[in-house]
Amino acid sequence: MLDRIKLGLNNVLPKKALTELAGWGASKRAGWLTKAVIDAFVWYYKVDVKEAQKPDTASYRTFNDFFVRPLCDDARPIETDPNLLILPADGVISQLGRIHGDQIFQAKGHTYSLEALLAGNATMTDMFRNGEFVTIYLAPRDYHRVHMPCNGILREMIYVPGDLYSVNPLTTQNIPNLFARNERVICRFDTEFGPMVQILVGATIVGSIETAWSGTVTPPREGVIKRWSWPGADEEGAVVLLKGQEMGRFKLGSTVINLFAPGKVKLAESLAAESKTRLGETLAIALQKESAEDVLHHP
Questions:
Q1: Residues recognised as catalytic
Q2: Helices then strands (H, E): number in the chain?
């Protein structure tokens, strides 16, 4: 009964207005009130503040500053084996596995299409058909910066406007095409492991999605698809990110989806739906690597 009520509220609540209100409040400097809100959040969600560079909650001027808090340098060791890709975020695996043709598994009884997820981009869809995917849900208590699974050269970013449904396990299991309906930022990289996409999915109360190279992508929410492209690594203006380097962040929690081309990587056998994830641990092993020269000269 409670689950039905929660799902019903997802359909009727003014999600965009609530999200904008939450974003506004989270960015305000309110002194003792800000600290009180942060302390309540830490208590309710059992946040481990000892991992943060600044464990004292009084040191954060806004709730957003606390929410995107950096961790201590040694809090998340990065797997250094060059044949291994790493998990990009703390959280829980929603689903992972093979992309069957164009179809990605969302939850029991629900799949969605690559084409819909990638906003109808046929070229990108063809890159990942029959490839591999991983969907990671970041709960409110988690560290909310997203990092690179491997070295990558940014080639394309697409902002897709959409709904702002919650992306917790309940909605994932009950709302069809959830990730292809919600607002998202699609980032495509050239890597030694073939093309890779990392998608930051928006949700209710996610006040902002940011990337390391462009800052805030949303808001404002203008309701139109936007696309940016970047040159290869040996050209002026290239954006090159290294394995483990921060690539984006959420101001309030959401979901990260990674897509890999077919035959390039094998997902770690230790991972399964509902597995907890920690940034820096093994995500996948290389099946086929490209030379640095090939990566540099991808079109």
A1: 90, 147, 254
A2: 9, 18
